[in-house]
Amino acid sequence: MRTLLLLAFGAAVALPAILALPPDDEGLAIEIATTKFQQAALAVGQYPFWDPLSGFGAPQPLSESLIFHPFLLLAAVFPLATAIGLLYLLQVWVAVFAVWGCCRHLGLRRPTAALCTVTFALSSSAVEYLNGDFWPSVMVGWSLSPLLLLLVLKLFDARSRSLRLACSLGAGVCAALMLLDGHAGAFPYLALGFVAFFAGEWRRVRQLWPWLLLALATFVLGIATKLLDVGLEAAREPSAPRLQIHYGFDLWRLFFYPLHSPFGAPAAPPDRLLAIGGPFALLILLGLRRATGRYVNGLRLVVIVTFAAWFVPVHLISVLSGNFLTRDPLILFGALLAGLMLEQLWREWPARRNLLLGASILQVLVLVVGFWPSYHSGLQRWRDFRGGDTSASLKGSLENLPVYRYFEGLPR
Asked: CA 390, CA 159: separation in Å to the nearest integer?
């Protein structure tokens, strides 16, 4: 029953992306086009190293691609629009099951684990990646990060050498896929979260350093092709400017999401701000001071470091894409810290459990209300498409624009 509920929840969350795809089309000409080109070439026994369709030509694959993802096979079996919808469904399922697994591994009760899972799946990161910007590579890295954390936790608590070997290799492969199929400008923020977690749990790291070194070696070997792709692109355009975005921090949205601030316009587009729900934001603050238990030190340090990273000027490191991406590891690790704090309060305040129950219900309501506008907009795009208005839907564009029919027919 639990598995069916998680599958149903993940499918419901991803439904607009499955039916109509996000409204932005930026990733179509980058990740999707280069991956489809690669798949079509492999289908006829070729391995292309040059893509003549990208501008005046570019090394193949582009540095943002999904060629190490099952999407490569999905694009061969299904129409491109259907394959993209399945990509989103698969990644949401991975994220939902992994967050649930992390919660249960930390000893959280099922209701608290469900609350943490809902928080991750309906946070501002999910609003943007599922219903806003069409950034498949960023979405893949974001949705794989809970799986990497679960593998790390399993490694930390493994009793046998065989389990440690499996978890260390799995963690290395998962981290590599987060970069291979992810975005080089977003990955450093996810990596920062895990480095901070390791620093906070340095005693476990010291005990398991050979296994973590194996995971690191697997990761380094796995990303070799990505480094080559990025290097080839950089060599062709060494002076090309890189879009880097730096937003101010919106304290109102952190605590009073989804209410609009009475103090003026938000510091950034709403879905690019940190929004995790006011009750969980308060639990995180309380957890920074009072939480006890396993891995609390690591979770605390991640929250502190990733929050501080928001205020570091993004232009100081040329590879970074935007400071708002630091909210992704903060939401993941922060939700777990909030869950641990909620469990602790549940044990310490038996007479106030009704208050804690009310706060949990409020957390769900806040997230659903904040998620609904973009979710409804996605469903409306699908209804418009069904009614014949193809211009409002990327799925309509994929089925009608000659350029995508051309992509699907390559190589000729």
From this structure: 56
With beta carbons less than 8 A apart as the criterion, state whether 332 and 99 touch: yes
Instruction: Round to whole Å and give the CA distance between 205 and 244.
Output: 34
Are residues 279 and 363 in contact, defined by beta-carbon separation less than 8 angstroms?
A: yes
Radius of gyration for the alpha carbons in the chain, expressed in angstroms and rounded: 21
DSSP classification of residue 244: -
Tell me which range, 26-35, 205-214, 250-259, 387-396, is most confidently predicted by mean pLDDT: 205-214
CA dihedral 251, 254, 259, 265 (to 10 degrees): 40
Backbone angles phi, psi at 58, to 5 degrees: -155, 155
Identity of the amino acid at 60 = Q
Task: Find tokens 């939480």 and name the residue.
Answer: 291
Mean pLDDT, the chain, integer:
88
The answer to whether the predicted template modeling score (pTM) of the entire model surpasses 0.85 is yes
* 3-state class (DSSP) for residue 322: strand
Residue 121: partners with Cβ closer than 8 Å, 6 or more residues away: 9, 10, 13, 92, 95, 96, 99
The three-state secondary structure class of 302 is: helix
Give φ, ψ of 7 to 5 degrees: -65, -45
Q: Are 84 and 21 in contact (CB under 8 A)?
A: yes
As given in the structure block, the two tokens for residue 268 are: 């950034």
Q: CA of 395: how far to CAs of 19, 28, 359, 404, in Å?
A: 8, 11, 39, 11
pLDDT, one tens digit per residue, over 228-262 is 777 766 666 555 566 788 998 989 999 999 988 88
Q: What tokens appear for 64 in the block?
A: 């943002």
Q: How many whole angstroms from its chain centre is CA 12?
A: 17
Q: What is the pLDDT of residues 182-191, one digit of tens each?
A: 998 899 999 9
Q: Write the pLDDT tens digit of every residue in 83-128.
A: 898 999 999 999 999 999 999 999 999 999 999 999 999 999 999 9
Using DSSP, how many helices (H) and how many strands (E) does the chain show? 19, 2
